[in-house]
Structures are given as structure tokens and as C-alpha cells.
Amino acid sequence: MNTPRSPFAVDPALQAEIEQFLYHEAALLDEGCFEQWLSLMTPDIEYRMPVTQPALARGQRPIEGTRAMHFEDDHRGLRARVHRLGSKAAWSDQPPPLTRRSITNVRVEPGDDNSLRVRSNFVLYIVRRSAQVDLLAGTREDTLRRVEGSLAIARRSTHLDQQMILANPLSMLF
Amino acid sequence: MDQPTAALFGSLDVDALLHERGTLDPRAYVDPSIHALEQERIFGRSWLLLTHESYLPEPGRFVTARMGEDPVVVTRTDDGTIAAFLNQCRHRGVPICRHETGRARSFTCSYHGWTYNARGRLLSIPNEARLFRCPIDRDDWSATPVPRIEIRHGLVFGCWDPQAPTLAEWLGDALLYFDLAFDAPGGTEALVGVSRRRVAANWKFGAEQFSTDGFHVSFTHASGFAALAAVNPQGDAAPFDVLNPPMTQMHSRYGHGMGFVHDLPAARAQFGANPIVGEWLFGPRLDYLVSKYGEQAREIFPLHMNFFPNTGSLWPNEVRVFNPSGPTHMEFWSWLIVDRQAPDAVKIAMRQDQQRTFGAAGIFEVDDMHNWVEAQRTLTGWQTRQRPFNVEMGTGSAEPAELGLEPVPSEAGARRFHRRWAQLMTTEREAGGIR
User: Fold this and answer.
1) Do A62 and B192 touch (CB under 8 A)?
2) pLDDT computed for residue A112 by the predictor
3) CB contact, 8 Å: A95 with chain B?
4) Which of B30, B122, B251, B377 supports an S-S bond with B257, CB 3.0-4.6 Å?
5) pLDDT-derived band of residue B254, with 50, 70 and 90 as boundaries?
6) pLDDT of residue A173
7) CA B287 to CA B188: how far, in whole Å?
8) Distance, in angstroms, between B224 CA and closest chain A CA?
9) Are B153 and B182 contacting, i.e. CB atoms less than 8 angstroms apart?
10) What residues pair up with A41 in beta bridges, in sequence order?
11) Which of the residues B367, B369, B377 would you substitute to probe the A interface, choosing the one with the greatest number of A C-beta atoms within 10 Å?
12) Average pLDDT over residues A159-167
């Protein structure tokens, strides 16, 4: 991960607007409103989750090469995921799991050309069939853009803090 | 099996778990004594996938891996060969290496400082003469080596049995299919990052499905196909026909099994695959395979496969191991393999296709995992273990003695898997070199 940067001075109103936007987005996923969630993405959305790299000893470097991904979707790929989650035959989510997302540590820095770079942490609590309880945490780097006055997500890169994924099946959106 | 375990759980007749007719005692998926015996008799002498060669690009590189439940260190040694040894200090049993990957010339145990080289040979013990005052023989006290290592098409396999047949002999009648699945012009490379998942289901649920099961697709994956069809202009072909699927199943008496599709380009379109990947696979890659293996390469595209016991793969670019983690869990490790000579755009497209379908969050993968987990959870009951599972599909037709080829649907591949499993489980390890 990137080294944490020094705090940026951000207009409190902007900070509040962005936080409210991210809370709203998380609530849409928790409530299963996937179509509405999708409407918050720009048509050129880049939605990614690289496979978490193993922790390396100090001074060690990973082997070079193309990184593997858990998610690497464009808008069409996200539409397919949302379509599937709306199906009664999406067995992994029948009955729908209870999910609760907590979004914290929202850090905003101005980007170029009407875009904002926003980093935030999340904790995702998932209960399936009353029998399986999972907890996932991680961090996200978003690029937000204003579209007709409203915020929208143009890029999201999610990093899970699990090298070995324990919360299977990984059928959730992040 | 050690006596306390046998006494506690009774002595199950392993050979009787799989009935001649093709029914399976579900205790095979839950019983701790069976799990313990598997470590010795299945994982203690089978050829097991450790890693891809590209994770060990130069001397000094290492990765850690698992052979069943046993942890190993896999290294590229100074002479360029690959070696592996048990990740356990011979002194007091602490893992010699705690990292999943890195670069090291030697490995020092964190407990008392015993140090081993890249082949696991004991190099030094701090203050040895003063502390031990007795000879510590370097040969006797080196880390336990994995005696057999073989690399085929970049995939690194290890085997604990010094008398084991070669990997090619182990693959036996499935060798050609293995070669056609993993050979590529210029070789292959693994993308960086092993997708690891711990799933609450016995490893055999995964291995068996990958051996045999083309017929779950239309039902388990109905939502996935519908989703792709909804967004993909090429994805509106007729859904997979369970009663007449355009597939052939291959099943080996050595326990390997796979399904291959007749019209692979059409099937790939249905999976929403990027056309530029097909242009590579059915262009330069197929030309190479035909030149090396003949015209038969045009008709054999193994789609799902499992090489006994636990190396699964989904053509063309994913390979995984279903490692046991106790009787009721598996840890599975998945590598994404791309053709080294393929253009970068093709490699990226292969990655995108794979994550969308059968990655950890793939729209097909999640429903597979869910089925296995639900089946396993149900087996926590007592009544749920009392009656056999049905593995009879296709028994009406005779199964060829050597290589089986038949149209799916059939569970012949699962029966072959379980028979091979029972054969190994009922043969003493001391017999050695099981064929």
C-alpha cells in the first residue's frame, strides 16, 4: 500500500458531502439496492480488486509481472454482477446474506479536472443463513467525479486485508 | 492410521465406502480418521502441484507451498534446479521459513538458529560444539527433502514417494490431455498473486466436481449465464443443455477426469470470453499444438479437469489445488497462467475473463463454492451421514477398462476418482511406487 500522506486541508463541506455520498453508497449495497448502486458508477468505471500480495520480509521485493485480480470490471462487467445478484437462481445469495458496511477514515485530496481522489477504509460484516459469520476489512482508493452536479464513482481499487480469503463465497460488491 | 484415532472413530472399511454400483458413503467427507489416513496414503505418495516455475525466476527465489497438510519450501537452487523440503526445523519443529515468497540463500530457524541451505541441508547450529558436545550428523539432521520434483509445462510437481512412477506415468492415459491443456508456444507464466481461499468443505468436493461434473452447469450456474447473456451481445446462445450437452467426458483409471467441449469457440462466447483471447488460442497456440501433437489437438479442449488427486484446472488459464485443511475445510490455491508469447492485451483479457467467471469473486465460482459449503455443513448431523450419496449417473453404459471417453452426462469420472482414492487408501504406504 501507499505510504499514508500528510493530511490535506479540505473544505469541511466537501468532506461532509463525500462522506455522505459514501455512506449512501454503502447503504444501497447493504439494503440490496444493486441497480441504484450501479447508477452511482460512471459509464467508464474501472472497478478492481488486486489479489492481496503476501507480506514480504524487510528489503524483499515481489517478483515482477502482471498482477492477478479478484475483480477487474468495466461497467458491463458490473452490470452482469448486478444482474446475477437480482436473480432468484443466484444460489450463493439465497437467502440474501445480511451485510453491514462501515466506512471510515475518509481522506480527500483534490484531483485534476473536476475529479477527487478519495481513500477510505471499510469493515464488512456478513451473515449467511444464520450459520456463517464473516468479517472482511480493507481499504479503497476511489476517483470521484461530478456528473451533472452529483458525485459518481469513476474508479475504485479495493484492497482486502486478507491474503487467504476466509469469507467465501466472495459474492459481495465492495 | 494410528491406534487412538482408530479406537475413537472405529475402523471404517474404506474400501466399502464406494459401493460397486456407484454410491458413496458420505463419511468420506467428514471422518477424521479418513482424513488422517489420506495424509499418509493419498498426499504421502501422489504427485502434487507446488507452484509455477515463473514464481522461481532465478536462484535464491523461494515460495512456500503445501502437500496435503504438510508445509514445504520450494526453492530455485544455485545450479538452477528446483528443490523442495519440509518446512519444519528438525530440532524442535518450528517452521524454517515463515514467508510465502522471497529471496534467500539460507533459512534460519527462529527458535535456536539452526540454518539450512536452499536444498534444506543443515548448514550450521549456533555454538554447536559448546552446546551439544555430541556429533550432529548433517545428513541425518537436514530438513526432510521432497525426493521427487518434476516440472511439466512450467507446473512444478512434488512427490514424497521415492519409488513413485514418473509424473508422465502417473498421468498415464491423461498425459496427452494434460499436455494439450498446459503446453503453449514459448511456455507459460503465472500472473503475480496466488488467489488463496479457505472454504468450509472437504477437498474431495472440489476435486470430484472438476473430474466429472459438466452437468451441474445448467442448474448451478443459471444465474451466471443469464447475467452474461444480459450484458453480452455474444452471450445469447442457447443455454447449456443438460440432457444433451455438447461435451465429451474423459475418465482415467488412474483417477483423472475432465470434460471437453466440442464447439469451444461457441462455448467461450457463452462464457462471455473476450474474442481476442480466442484469436490467440485458436490461432498461434493451436497451430503450435497441432504441429506438436497432430490434428487431434483441434478436437480436444479440456474445459474442466482434475488430475488425481487434487490438481484442478479450468481451460485455458487457471490451475488450482484443492488442499485439505482438516476433514471439513479445504484451502484452495489458484494460479492464473498465461501464454508467455501472447500479446499483453491477450494476457490482460485472459485475466479479465477469468476474474469475471471463475475467480474468487467470479459469477460462476461463487455458486460452486456455496454448494460445497452447504453440503459440508449439512453433514454435521448424524442422520445426514447414514445413507449413501448417489454417483450412479451413466452406469447403464459400460466403462472402458483403460481410457474412458463418453458423452456427458455421466458420473464415470467421479467413480474413477473415488475408486482410485479407495485403491490408494487401502494400500499400505510401504508398498511404495503405487501405479
Assistant:
1) yes
2) 67
3) no
4) B251
5) very high
6) 97
7) 16
8) 6
9) yes
10) A153
11) B367
12) 94
The pLDDT score that the predictor gives to residue B9 is 39
**Mean pLDDT taken over chain B:** 89
Mean pLDDT, chain A, whole residue set: 91
Cα(B362)–Cα(B355) distance, integer angstroms: 6
Minimal CA–CA distance to B205: which of B340, B327, B339, B44?
B327
Nearest Cβ partner of B193 from A64, A68, A168? Answer: A68
Q: Do B360 and A89 touch (CB under 8 A)?
A: no
The fraction of chain A above a pLDDT of 70, given in percent, is: 93
Q: What is the pLDDT of residue B68?
A: 97
User: Is the pLDDT at B7 greater than 50, yes or no?
Assistant: no
The single residue listed with the C-alpha cell 534444506 is: B120
Confidence of residue B299 (pLDDT cuts 50, 70, 90): confident
pLDDT band at B234 (very low <50, low <70, confident <90, very high): low
pLDDT, position B16: 74
Whether the pLDDT of residue B10 is over 50: the answer is no
Does the pTM of the predicted model rise above 0.90? yes
Residues 6+ apart with CB under 8 A from B301: B180, B260, B261, B264, B315, B316
Distances (CA, A) of B129 to B98, B115, B121: 28, 15, 19
